[in-house]
Amino acid sequence: MGIIVGSQTRLVVQGITGREGSFHALNNRRYGTNVVAGVTPGKGGQDVEGIPVFDTVSQAVVATQANTSLVFVPPRFAVDAIYEAVDAGIQTVICVTEGIPAHDMLLAWHWVRERGAVLVGPNCPGVCTPGQANVGIIPADIFAEGSVGVVSRSGTLTYQLGKELADMGIGNSSIVGIGGDPIVGSNFIDVLARFEEDPDTDMVVMVGEIGGAEEEKAAAWVADNMNKPVIGYVAGLTAPPGKQMGHAGAIISGSSGTAASKVEALREAGIEVGKNPTEVARIVAEQRGVTVG
Amino acid sequence: MDLYEHQGKELFARYGIPVSEGRVATTPEEARTAAEELGGQVVVKAQVLIGGRGKAGGIKLASGPDEAFEHASNILGMDIRGHEVGRLWIEKASDIKAEYYLSVTFDRAAKQPLIMLSTMGGVDIEQVAEEHPDRIARRHVDPLLGIQPYEARQLCFAAGVPVELSGQVVKIILQLYAAFRGEEAMLTEINPLIVTPDDVVRALDAKFTVDESALFRHPDVAAMRDVGAADPQEQMARERGVTYVKLDGNVGILGNGAGLVMSTLDVVEQCGGSAANFLDVGGGAKAEEIVASLEVILADPKVDSILFNIFGGITRCDEVARGIIAALTTLDVTVPMVVRLDGTAAAEGLALLEQADLDGVTVSSTMLGAAELAIEKAGRATAASVS
């Protein structure tokens, strides 16, 4: 089964005629994702290697019953694309775009929640359920089918971890990149709750980084609500305060948001934490009784 | 992006928040002229993007132009917690009866702006929060509706603002929220918000952090960036479109994706080394961007080796390899490089590197192995330069 995307996914790609949009739409289709439509205003009637393009999301939904949207629209227009998708009845929106203004996302977050839709991202690599569907830019071939869920604020770090797990013969139920922005549609708790409910997931790896307090909140939530084991990792132990480390959300302000405080919160919640991706994979292997060569 | 106090006050004034009259000065002479124009006692304030100026001696009261000149001579060039003072704000001195604290912050966890008001201002608010948590009034604002006047009144009553002052404070709360929304700030803070002996409420300091991603809508604020204050390499990186943060070590780092680069810095330290920088080439980097990034890293004389840690997703490893080869033929690279390529087109990238057979480039297949090798090579380079 996996979470958020899977064999039930009917994907519409917003911004499909752009360079990135077309490349990844086709990549996702090649993986086996059911890509049913694309949207670019003014280019309705065209197609991208057989994927029909529509002017509006609502036209795409009516014609193709799309139920999931992937947003590849430039930052100045991406929030508008999110609103358009949800207004058209799309219940799952995954936004890869980086650099959306934080105040725009603040308003969009509330609007989307009120309508009961699921938003993943922005500034995220997407969601992959190995063997079923890949929606976004995750190089899915790294990941094998399996039962370890992964939720992460970072893209490439997730790939690193997936590779280390795959090297030990461990596969994944779903991989969810929640994004590195200050405001993201789904946070750790939203995704952890889905993994807890998912019958195909029996363990979760949670990859955090400096900035904000989401890891701390997730740790407390895990202690109170989760039965499945969670293994943690936090990047940025050596990050200096006050400097934005690439991601807009990755900044230590004052004494809050440090990697050390997050690691401590995770450990207090009974979550075992690895000090680097290799060690995380080793812990997962040990807990699963996989022999480490 | 953080703004200087005087820039924050300029924005405050646009929203009607009362501030003291003042002038910017970059030389002692300008400070003297500013003091003459303002008349009476003035305060000479170092403009740096870090707190704790007062304790460090960066804020001084001057009785007149000559003393302003003297203080300016001492403060300009001063190092305040790693920030060199290059400009001053000279403003009319204020008589102070009480000091309050007021801020609007972008509360990421609550997904709502948070207003905090306290009558115990003038000190570090984290300290007040710890010692007198009941003395800080807090209120989240519905971002869709925006702040309503009754919310500002409630804050004043909860914080214990005297009734005769609450009219002014309510107005400033509404104005500060308008500035926060209007300029798309992540933080706006007034500490202290002072009350003068004749009961006038005024912002004596301004802290303003704006969202970099929204600057395209605020060209006037974007123009406030002090390019001179940025580290020269950080400035060079900005011009080349890569994300770079300078650190203190000697192992240069080049990676793709913020999380992976942060993790690489941690691994370097765990292996006993120390990173010279954070550098994220971003997604989908082409060969030219790799060359540009290497230029930025190499501009730091402390760098003794360079560690490439690339996990291709959007980024293609063959492009990265082409960049490395191009850099070695166009730039004067004397430090050893350790390269780890994985993910999209890794095999092609590694084949290109092998074919090129470059001096000083070593390939490693794992992140940990590459880190250990880069540290070892940096250590050898240091030893060689000492002997």
Short description:
The complex is a heterodimer of chains A (293) and B (387). Chain A has 293 residues and is α/β, with parallel strands linked by helices.
Describe this structure in words.
The complex is a heterodimer of chains A (293) and B (387). Chain A is an alpha/beta fold and 293 residues long. Helices cover 35% and strands 22% of the residues of chain A. Chain A has nine helices and 14 strands. In chain A, strand 12, helix 7 (214-225) and strand 13 (230-235) form a beta-alpha-beta unit. The two termini of chain A are 30 Å apart. With 387 residues, chain B is α+β, with helices and mostly antiparallel strands. Chain B folds into three domains: 21-92, ATP-grasp fold, A domain (Dna Ligase, domain 1), CATH 3.30.1490.20; 98-222, 2-Layer Sandwich (D-amino Acid Aminotransferase, Chain A, domain 1); 232-379, Rossmann fold (3-Layer(aba) Sandwich). In chain B, 40% of the residues lie in helices and 25% in strands. In chain B, strands 1, 8, 9, 10, 11, 12 and 13 form a seven-stranded antiparallel beta sheet that branches. In chain B, strands 2-7-3-4 form a four-stranded antiparallel beta sheet, covered by helices on one side. In chain B, strands 15-17-18-19 form a four-stranded parallel beta sheet, with helices on both faces. In chain B, strand 18 (337-343), helix 12 (346-356) and strand 19 (361-363) form a beta-alpha-beta unit. In chain B, helix 2 runs antiparallel to helix 3 and helix 10 (287-298) crosses helix 11 (317-330). The longest helix of chain B is centred in the middle third of the chain and has 20 residues, at 163-182. Chain B is elongated and about 80 Å long. The two termini of chain B are 43 Å apart. The mean pLDDT of chain B is 93. The chains are: A alpha/beta (293), B alpha+beta (387). Chains A and B meet through helix 4 and helix 5 of A and helix 9 of B.
Order of helices and strands of chain A: EHEEEHEHEHEEEEHEHEHEHEH
Q: Low-confidence spans of chain B: pLDDT under 50, at least 5 residues?
A: none
Most extensive protein-chain contact, per-chain counts? A-B, 61 and 52 residues
Could you name the CATH class of the largest domain in chain B?
Alpha Beta
Strand order of the largest sheet of chain A: 3-4-2-1-5-6-7
Instruction: Enumerate the spans of chain A where pLDDT stays under 50 for 5 or more consecutive residues.
Output: none
CATH architecture group name of the largest domain in chain A:
3-Layer(aba) Sandwich
Write down the domain tally of chain B.
3
Radius of gyration of chain A using CA atoms only: 19 Å
Assigned CATH superfamily of the largest domain in chain B: Succinyl-CoA synthetase domains
Quaternary form? heterodimer
Amount of helix of chain B: 25-40%
**How many β strands of chain B by DSSP?**
19
Helix tally of chain B equals: 13
Shape field of chain B: elongated
Number of domains of chain A: 2
Proportion in helices of chain A: 25-40%
